[in-house]
Design a protein that fits this description.
It comes from Nesospiza acunhae. With 289 residues, this protein is of the alpha+beta class. It has eleven helices and eleven strands.
Length: 289
């Protein structure tokens, strides 16, 4: 009787792990979200996971080295065609406020002796991206924080400007702390943490669906696919989902926001990079109401 019972259980388990049930979109999303709770995946993670040895660094799961000998193909792409790299693990810090106030305080953490600064005319107009080294406020040439890249949003006739600073995840906390200090930014009084909580509840529901894949497809599953369109986890590898991601200064009016994993970043290398972007990106028609 025990042997027959064991055989019967094995048959039931085999039915629960059918490929069709496991490959449903809602089940895949729930499983992927559950697997990246500790280490966040990039948008191109699945493509890299099939072709690269993955490593866990800085709170992310990144491709380290290819599983095949593709060095010649990469070199050929860089010299004759185009090679794309996913740099979305770099953290983006967004600054909003009056241009004069931004430049006044940012001048304290950089120096013209090292090269370009945030006040460079070509970069300040928003046409080009700049790069520089940041230091602790009023401590140059000591207290170096690390290299960053930045880009200004083009002027729109308003005094308020928008600046994006891209930093390596290993340097993010130190640079963010220094920016909050020079701009005297504190956490806003109203911190919205309901969104991450809702997302976590939805994840738990989806995980329950994954654990109960043995049931046949029902109408509830179809409704669930439409009702739970969760595709990512709130937060990133350098920030806890329940921490605040926006700070504002009551004295200067400067606002700092952490836009990590909200803005994707890719690097194109090769002579055909510009032509590929031209063919891929199409300008949208501007409609005025």
């Amino acid at each position: 009787k025990q042997a027959e019972k064991a055989v019967h259980q094995k048959k039931e388990q085999s039915k629960t792990k059918c490929r069709k049930a496991r490959r449903r979109h809602i089940n895949l999303v729930a499983e992927f979200n559950h697997r990246q709770r500790k280490n966040i995946w990039l948008e191109t993670h699945i493509w890299h996971a099939k072709r690269f040895h993955m490593v866990k660094k800085w709170g992310y799961c990144l491709g380290n080295s290819p599983t095949e000998k593709s060095y010649r193909a990469c070199y050929r792409a860089m010299t004759k065609q185009c090679l794309l790299q996913d740099l979305s693990y770099y953290c983006c810090l967004e600054l909003k406020g009056k241009e004069n106030e931004l430049l006044k305080q940012l001048a304290r953490i950089c120096s013209i002796d090292t090269g370009l600064t945030f006040q460079e005319a070509s970069c300040l107009s928003g046409r080009f991206e700049g790069s520089l080294n940041l230091y602790r406020a009023d401590h140059y040439p000591e207290g170096m924080l690390g290299p960053v890249t930045f880009i200004w949003k083009p002027r729109d006739g308003c005094e308020d400007r928008q600046l994006w600073i891209w930093v390596h995840p290993a340097l993010k906390q130190d640079i963010l702390k220094e920016l909050k200090a020079i701009f005297q930014c504190s956490e806003p009084e109203e911190i919205c943490i309901s969104e991450p909580v809702t997302a976590s509840v939805q994840e738990e529901k989806q995980v329950e669906v994954v654990m109960s894949l043995g049931n046949k497809r029902k109408k509830e599953d179809k409704e669930g696919e439409k009702a739970v369109p969760v595709k990512k986890i709130i937060g990133d590898g350098t920030r806890d989902p329940f921490q605040s991601y926006s700070w504002i200064s009551q004295t200067t009016g400067i606002a700092i926001s952490d836009r990590s994993m909200e803005i994707l970043r890719y690097r194109l290398i090769g002579p055909l990079s510009h032509s590929i972007l031209t063919e891929t990106l199409k300008a949208a028609s501007v409609q005025t109401v």
